[in-house]
Description:
Layout: H1 3-6, E1 38-40, E2 42-43, H2 57-61, E3 69-72, E4 83-89, E5 93-101, E6 123-129, E7 137-143, E8 148-155, E9 158-160, E10 168-174, E11 177-185, E12 198-206, E13 211-214, E14 230-233, E15 244-256, E16 269-284, E17 287-293, H3 321-324, E18 365-369, E19 376-385, E20 390-399, E21 402-408, E22 413-419, E23 422-433, E24 438-449, H4 454-457, E25 463-475, E26 480-492, H5 495-503, E27 525-537, E28 543-552, E29 569-580, E30 587-600, E31 606-619, E32 624-632, E33 635-637, E34 647-649, E35 652-660, E36 667-678, E37 683-696, E38 699-721, E39 731-754, E40 757-778, E41 786-788, E42 795-799, E43 802-806, E44 817-820, E45 824-840, E46 843-857, H6 864-873, E47 877-885, E48 888-889
Parallel strand pairs: 1-14, 2-4
Antiparallel strand pairs: 3-13, 4-5, 5-11, 6-7, 6-12, 7-8, 8-9, 10-11, 12-13, 12-14, 15-16, 15-47, 15-48, 16-17, 17-19, 18-21, 19-20, 20-23, 21-22, 23-24, 24-25, 25-26, 26-27, 27-28, 28-29, 29-30, 30-31, 31-32, 32-35, 33-34, 35-36, 36-37, 37-38, 38-39, 39-40, 40-41, 40-45, 42-43, 43-44, 45-46, ...
Amino acid sequence: xxxxxxxxxxxxxxxxxxxxxxxxxxxxxxxxxxxxxxxxxxxxxxxxxxxxxxxxxxxxxxxxxxxxxxxxxxxxxxxxxxxxxxxxxxxxxxxxxxxxxxxxxxxxxxxxxxxxxxxxxxxxxxxxxxxxxxxxxxxxxxxxxxxxxxxxxxxxxxxxxxxxxxxxxxxxxxxxxxxxxxxxxxxxxxxxxxxxxxxxxxxxxxxxxxxxxxxxxxxxxxxxxxxxxxxxxxxxxxxxxxxxxxxxxxxxxxxxxxxxxxxxxxxxxxxxxxxxxxxxxxxxxxxxxxxxxxxxxxxxxxxxxxxxxxxxxxxxxxxxxxxxxxxxxxxxxxxxxxxxxxxxxxxxxxxxxxxxxxxxxxxxxxxxxxxxxxxxxxxxxxxxxxxxxxxxxxxxxxxxxxxxxxxxxxxxxxxxxxxxxxxxxxxxxxxxxxxxxxxxxxxxxxxxxxxxxxxxxxxxxxxxxxxxxxxxxxxxxxxxxxxxxxxxxxxxxxxxxxxxxxxxxxxxxxxxxxxxxxxxxxxxxxxxxxxxxxxxxxxxxxxxxxxxxxxxxxxxxxxxxxxxxxxxxxxxxxxxxxxxxxxxxxxxxxxxxxxxxxxxxxxxxxxxxxxxxxxxxxxxxxxxxxxxxxxxxxxxxxxxxxxxxxxxxxxxxxxxxxxxxxxxxxxxxxxxxxxxxxxxxxxxxxxxxxxxxxxxxxxxxxxxxxxxxxxxxxxxxxxxxxxxxxxxxxxxxxxxxxxxxxxxxxxxxxxxxxxxxxxxxxxxxxxxxxxxxxxxxxxxxxxxxxxxxxxxxxxxxxxxxxxxxxxxxxxxxxxxxxxxxxxxxxxxxxxxxxxxxxxxxxxxxxxxxxxxxxxxxxxxxxxxxxxxxxxxxxxxxxxxxxxxxxxxxx
Length: 890
């Protein structure tokens, strides 16, 4: 029977309850005696010119709210400067006007930045719980300089900045302070038209005094957030928002790349053009269908360069607009813990449109023209919530089959399919109860591929399914919470594909000493499960913490549409911390914590055994510190041999110290020091520095050099069959000592000319050198002991860049191991420049330049002067893109 059927992945049916929006606006928040603050909106008469000056008669007719309370620096005290906020309901938009008085206007910090950037300055923000579900709000911020930011608030990570709305704001400054006008179209907010009450929060931040003032105040000892917002009343009969939104785009791209001489596919100067459209249709005011045809998913900022010597994939976050918008409705298995082991990501949208799986290479291929990503023919999603507390997220995408063209050594052209036609589906359903204190949800994902090509049939899984249930439950005014989830997976494919799945670095079913699983080369499917549960104490004046248990079975596989690095894990995590938010003689606030992480595989071997503590605080001069210490007790490592027997993991101690300066200054910085050493002599050291300079409101430079040095005794090299290696199950597992040094410098320069026009430059040079020495083999399972070739056993020699290892010292035997020179000097420079001009709300023009230089040499030693010169001499690949979008709403 199919696993998903066995675990009962079905829609969740629960009893209906009264509509979320119908509440008493004067009622107190649950569990408190404080009345909920209320702001009353007025109907807009006439029009508003968005110039930041509240001089229209409509503003004078609206009743202002003036009661604001400090969270910092003096918790619970009235705001030190007066703030007035008014709300108007227009025919198609909500208007917020704020008058922010300042006794000395010279204290105002009018910072400018590109949209959604973090900014140091005076701000005013409004957050709207337009569905009034007490879970999710939509956040809009403007600085005294006019910089905009929008986000979804209420998730486990605070603000989700990937959400972008079409809205506008303007600011002005005078002798009494500054003011802001904000216009938010109703089309950008999900709501139920019959509701008469929304949740609302206003925030004012005064940079010079580091003062944070809120309209709806929540003491720090209590859990705040969307559930503790005030009430917005007086909305009346809300209008139906625009039903249709269309955003067509057109882009051109010029690529100047280094290509092999005589290539029939590229000449090094190639030009491309594309067009497409995003389309939104509102079924109701809170339910939206979004589609995209031939989407342009070019990233504005490149992924950083990394040197990955592990067996695991590097995670890069999603940046593509179609997928990030509304992504909060697809989140599954949120744990509100302070410390946990980690769980798989069951929906990772970067799998859609990824680089093709099949690589065409070999000595017979002379020239190759292969696609760098799969084409998304079309994608559609349905997102929204109902008045009764149901939220839905459904996404379906189709990627086309991809062809690579090549020329062989005989000059004959050929082609091969490198990615099949594929369909990706995600369905998410949640039920919210008890004013958002209890949420039950389900998830289903499916990937199906058309594998008519035999080569792809033996490379990719034909289908993959994941289903799960999750629960988030809070009580006692959200001071306490219990979160849990359970999911199952099932994948299908040919025996060779499932064999590769069993042998992947996530599970290593071929491990010879495994007890809880075994490798089966004849399997054509694989199933597994994962789950987690956590008890969290989040509220309280001083004490907080959590206890979490998480597990993932050896057969779990979610990487077709999710992200996981390791399965076969059971983990227990704890946290206990004490915080003080009342300013004292030296510190404005501080926190100390102790926490533990213990992880076992399904055989019962402890593979992570960590005890840690940290302390952090902010001084009264706004500088601060973070210090942490970790003790790693002796444990086992079932991944070190990459499919071989379990090895040992020595005891270690790690320490970290971070110091940061007052970020209010023109010059600010952070220095970080990290050191980890174990009883065997392995050592890791990292020194990093972050420097920021902001000489003008719209100009900011930042520099982030980081130097890493690692000395590792057991860097995996290879394995080789040898029946004489009885102690290690007939395999020799070859390692080396690795001395690696990496230097990286992340540099950013931002010029914001106006709130709608900005230029950003990003550069990341990286140099990494790795020197391999003392080749050795694992002496025995469950140890961290090695026999060094040339000293303890056998011989090792190097001829013409090839190492030959004779484990028994006799070159005439057949068990010698040959490998190329693993030493490396990797050099990379990645950078881009982006000019963005939002010439009208929702419509933008981009000019993008991207450059990459990549090269390597087998020196092994780190020489900055030599390697930097080598990096500069590398031929640059340059890509120039112009893209224009135009937003239409009806």
